[in-house]
Design a protein that fits this description.
about 90 residues; mainly alpha; binds zinc ion
């Protein structure tokens, strides 16, 4: 399965280790990028086991980009995978 940028509505293909395409990743404030990396676990893209902290960081990043672009953020994948629920 192709892995695409996690920004809502973006379909740029990126390596699984990358959370977003270069353009979207660069548009994130450093604190959001750091939070995503801090909670990222290698292999999570294959087994879908993410931590609650990662889900929070990912949602914050996706919302940030969507807000900038005037879109409704789609964070459903994180809501579904978040072990604690939102
Ligand atoms: Zn993107």
């Amino acid at each position: 399965m192709a892995h695409t940028c996690h920004a809502t509505g973006c379909e740029v293909e990126v390596p699984p280790v990358m959370f977003m395409c270069r353009v979207h990743w660069k548009s994130l404030p450093k604190r959001l990028r750091d939070a995503v990396w801090e909670h990222y676990r290698p292999g999570q893209c294959d087994d879908w086991n993410i931590t609650h902290e990662y889900a929070e960081a990912a949602r914050a990043a996706v919302r940030h980009v969507a807000e900038k672009e005037g879109r409704i953020a789609d964070t459903s994948v994180y809501d579904a995978l978040d072990p604690k629920g939102e």
